[in-house]
Amino acid sequence: MSVYTELTFAELETFVAQFDLGALTGFQGVDAGVENTTYFVSLGRCETVLQIFEEQGFDEIPFFIELNRQLSDDHVPVARPLANRDGVRLFTLKGKPAALFSRLKGTTLVDVTRDACRQIGEALGKMHHHTQDYSHLSRENHRWSPWWRSNHARVEPFVEEEFKALLADQIDRSESFVRQSTTLPNGIIHGDLFIDNALFDGPELTGIIDFYNACNGAFVFDLAVAVNDWCSDASGRLDEQRTRAFIGGYQTHRPLTAEEISAWPDALETAALRFWMLRLVALARQQEGGPQAPPHVKDPNDFLHILRARRADPQCELLQP
Predict the structure, then answer these.
(1) What is the DSSP letter of 107?
(2) Terminus of the chain with fewer CB atoms < 10 Å: N or C?
């Protein structure tokens, strides 16, 4: 998360005074991602993370705060939103929504191992096991079929000529999965569980972060999003050992149904489409300019390669551990 909202020491000192966490001893802006402002904040012996929400409004943030609180209570490894002395977890800083979270140990992985895939698969399976019962939480998937279609013309200039037809065809092709997904096991999904949204302390998973794409959705789609990122090799194909470890870890907490296994190829393609489109839209926003133009845009072709590999061969046999 890049730093869009600048804070002084005095401003942050005033903010943290409402918590019983110790005096402010230091803070540092975090320059990563594209959506929110993030600071690492040191309070006495307590390490925390301050998030200032740049795109979501005050009406949206309670969902994310309650989701993280509930997952933390259910022992899913996530950052816990911290309450002030009055039990409040949502605040205003510089006129924007803000929240303070516990800081998880660890860093993102450089080399993804089979064991790391097993651990993150277990964590995602455990999350889905619990969120299927979170009936008190609900959020629409705002990057679903209507979003792809509304942005198709916007991103087409950034797609090489030879792949324009593929993009149009995949948007049409994924409609069948969109319709089918309403009948598949569902609940709150992470929506963006990429390698850089998990922290490891050495070889051990310490937590899942960045739930700001979380929404209601089909669990198999969320699993496909993660597998596409964690288990793809340089060619875009799925690495056998990593995929089997991920799926095996996942199913220790939530076994896949026959319907989900049948939908797996479509889920993989649709997950690849969603993130190809997401990066193309980010590229369009960058070219269009403006104060909210993203400073960093990841290569959209990463997911073009993955999509082409899935369409050629979804490698369904790797579903089995």
Answers:
(1) B
(2) C
Q: Are 247 and 145 in contact (CB under 8 A)?
A: no
Could you give the strand order of the β-sheet that contains 91-93, starting from the edge strand earlier in sequence? 24-29, 37-43, 46-52, 96-102, 91-93
Q: Which residues of 233-250 are buried (b: 16+ CB within 10 A; e: fewer)?
A: eeebbbbeebbbbbbbbb
What CATH code is assigned to 9-102?
3.30.200.20
Distance from chain centroid for Cα 14: 31
Q: List pLDDT tens digits, range 126-165.
A: 999 999 999 999 999 999 999 999 999 999 999 999 999 9
Tell me the pTM.
0.94
From-to residues of CATH 3.90.1200.10 in the chain: 114-319
Question: What is the phi-psi region of residue 66: left when phi exceeds 0, alpha when psi lies from -120 to 50, beta otherwise?
Answer: alpha
* Residue given tokens 């369009």 in the structure block: 284
Domain 114-319: which CATH class? alpha beta
Q: Are 23 and 44 in contact (CB under 8 A)?
A: yes
